[in-house]
Amino acid sequence: MQNLKITNYLYIFYSLVFLLNIVHVFWANDILFFVIGVMGIVMLIINFPRSDKVFRILGVVLLAIGIFFFISSDVSVNEIPSYFAGNISLLFLLSMLPWMNSVVKAGRYNKLLQSLLGGNVKGMGSLYIRSEVTMVSLAAFLNLSSATISQDLLKEQLKEAKTKIRNSFIAMATLRGYSLALLWSPLEILLATSIFITGANYLEVLPWMLLVAILGITLDSTIGKLIFRKHDIGSNSLTSSHPQFQKKKLVEFIAALVLFLVVVVFLANVVQFDFLFAVTIAIFPFAFIWAVVKKRKTSFQQIGWPTWKKQTNNLNNFIVLLLSLSFFTEALNASPFLQYLQDPIVALEGSPILIMLFIQAAFLVLTLLGVHPIATMGIFGGVSGLLIEALPSVTLTILLASCAIATVPSAPYGLIVTITSVGLGVNPYQIVLKNLPYTLMCGFIGIIVSMITLYIY
C-alpha cells in the first residue's frame, strides 16, 4: 500500500526533471545536464520493475549493448549520467499530451465522431471511406480516443454483419485512418522524433507529409471500398442528428487545429525554439485558452488534472525505452563500432533508393519482431550524421516518419493494436496480417515522396 502511495506522486519528481529540462533549454550548462542525467537514471531504476515485460527486455538489450559500446570507447565514466539526459525532452512531450486530449473531451468534440460516422450509407464500402476520412480528420487531436470511440460506434453500427467481416472492417478502417492522421500531426511522437533527429524545419516537412497522407487515404479508401463493396451494413444504422451542431463543431475543431499549427510554427521559426520544445510548451497554454474561450475551463480542469497525473505517473514503459535508448545511442556514437553500422549505408552511398528501401525494411522487420518504432528511430539517429550526408534533412525526415508511422497498424505489441485486439476479441497478429499490405503501401508512398524531394532540396 505504501508503494502504491509513492507511485501516485511520481509526477512531482518527473515535473522537477522536466522543469530542469526547460531551464537547460535557456541555460545550456554542462553541470545542469549532468544533474538531469542523474535524475534520468533514478527514473529508469524506479520504472524498470513497473514496465511491461516487452519493454524490460528491450531496455535490458539496449543497456547491455550500450555498455559494450561504452567499454569499447575511450570516454570517461563521468560522462555516463549525461548519456541518459538526451531523451528527457521526448518524455516531457509525452507527459503534456493528455492536456490536449482533455480539452477535446471537455469541449465534447469526441461526440463529433458519432455525428460524422452516423447517417445512412449505401453499404460497407461507402462506410469504409467515411470511417477513414473521419479518423484522418479528427485523430490528429483526439489521438487514441478517436480509435476507441470510433471502434465502439462501428461495432454497434455493424452488429448485424458477420463477425469476421465486421472485425476486418474495424481493424482496417480505424487503424489505417489513425496512422494517416499521425503522418502530419505535430503531436505525434514519431514525427517529432524524426524532426528531432534531422533538425529539419516542420514547415518545410508539413506539405510533403500531407501529400503522403492524401495519397495514402486516396489509395486505401479506394481499396477498402472495393473489398467491402458487396457487404451490407444491415438495418441497424446509426443516425446522424443535429447537422448544424455537427457543422459548427467541425469548423471549430479545424480552426483550433490550424491555430495550434500556427502557434507551433511561430515558436519554431520566429522565436527559434527547437520544434520538439515548441510543440511541448505550446500544448498546455493553448489547451487552457481554448477551454476558456469555449467556456469549458471547469470541465477542462476536472478532466485534465487527474488525467495528466495518471498518465505522467504511468510513463514507465516510455521511460525505460527512451532512457535506455538514449544511453545506447550516445554510447554508439562514442564507440568505434559505429563504423560497422555505417558500412551498409556507406556501401549504398550514391543509391538513395536503396538506402530508403533499407530504412523501410528495418522499420518493418523490427516492428514485427516487437521492437518499438521509436527504438528503431533511435538506432538510425545514431548514424544520422551519415544519413544526412546521403539525404537532405527534409527528405530524411519524410522517410523516417512515414516508414515509422506506416508500421503503427502492423505493430503486434503496439498500444493501438493491443487496444483493438482486446476490443474485438481477436489475436493481434490477425490485425497485423490485415494491415501489413497497407504498411508496405504507405512506406512505399513515403519513399516515392522522399525521392521527389531529392530533386528540390
Low-confidence stretches: none
Number of helices: 23
Identify the overall geometry. globular
Q: What is the mean pLDDT?
A: 85
Number of DSSP strand runs: 0
Task: Give the H and E element order.
Answer: HHHHHHHHHHHHHHHHHHHHHHH
Residue share in helices? over 70%
* Straight-line distance between termini: 58 Å
Strand content: under 5%
SS class:
mainly alpha
Main sheet makeup: none
Rg computed from alpha carbons, rounded to a whole number of angstroms: 22 Å
Describe the structure.
The protein has helices spanning 2-7, 10-26, 30-47, 53-72, 80-83, 88-106, 111-117, 124-142, 144-157, 163-182, 189-198, 202-228, 243-270, 275-293, 297-313, 316-334, 338-347, 352-368, 373-382, 384-390, 393-406, 415-424, 428-454. With 457 residues, it is mainly alpha-helical. The mean pLDDT is 85. Helix 6 packs parallel to helix 14 and helix 18 (352-368) runs antiparallel to helix 23 (428-454). 79% of the residues lie in helices and 0% in strands. It has a domain at 1-103 and 272-335. The longest helix has 28 residues, at 243-270.
Would you summarize the structure shown here?
The protein has helices at residues 2-7, 10-26, 30-47, 53-72, 80-83, 88-106, 111-117, 124-142, 144-157, 163-182, 189-198, 202-228, 243-270, 275-293, 297-313, 316-334, 338-347, 352-368, 373-382, 384-390, 393-406, 415-424, 428-454. The protein is mostly helical and 457 residues long. It has a domain at 1-103 and 272-335.
